[in-house]
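Students often ask why we bother encoding 3D structure as a string. The short answer is that it lets us treat folding as translation between two languages. Here is a chain of 285 residues written in the first language.
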Amino acid sequence: MNGLVGGLFVVVTFVRVGFHLGLPSDVEQEIRRVPLETIAGLAGALIWGIYDVLRRFESVELSPVALHQVWLRMLVASVLAPILSKPFADPLKATVAFAVGAFPVKELLELVKGQARDRLKFSGSLQPAEQPTLHRLQGLSESMIERLLAEGFESAEHLATADPIKLLMRTNIEWKTILDLIDQAILLDYFPDNAELLRPCGIRGAIELATIQEDLDSEDNGARAQAQKLVLSIASVLKQDEACTRNAIRNAYEDVQVEFLWDLWGETADDDGEQTLMGPVSGGS
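And here it is in the second language, the structure alphabet:
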């Protein structure tokens, strides 16, 4: 499909600029009527598609879907580029059309849906949706978010319940990065409005939160006293009742996903020759 669509693009481009490729005269005449913006949109989609393929190949995450996205983007851009560039002045139309090809197909379709909904004054029963939350996780750059979105992870909630092993196989993201992101996402589930406030306390993820429960259950009086002070500090930072804070810590300690991540972190530490991070003594059901 990439060869077919790319070949048609080359033929259209050469005929459009005046070359004769032995095609019937009426066919060449029709091709020469193709708007310049369509050619620019096709060129943009092809170039940015090749760039995306090379980037994915370099990060070892090139899939058949990514290859099909190239020709699909070219077809979509060839239709939308003349439409979206029409409001601009003539000198800018080709540039805008070329830029349209750089957008992923999903974003282009969302743009078309939004425009159609506004023009048609469509007021159908749109279900309310949560705002994106992936950007609230540390370490998630724009390109990293795009990689997760491509795999269907559109929010921190989706990531919090993800299988880290399957996520590794699908995205080839660094193993420790996957564990850290899921760990942060779980903490964001517990404190959706103010999880970032816990970072100065040394709590970036749910595992750090769960370790407090270990100290609270410890036979070491010093460890218990320190953990109790930390509970009070967290409750103060979050401006919530101490009992609510203790309940969140206990639930994180008994969370099956947290326990699973905790064990995986311990195995990772062993593999690196570092100190093993012990998992919870008694854990989730």
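Translate back mentally: The CA atoms of residues 38 and 79 lie 7 Å apart. Keep this in mind for the problem set.
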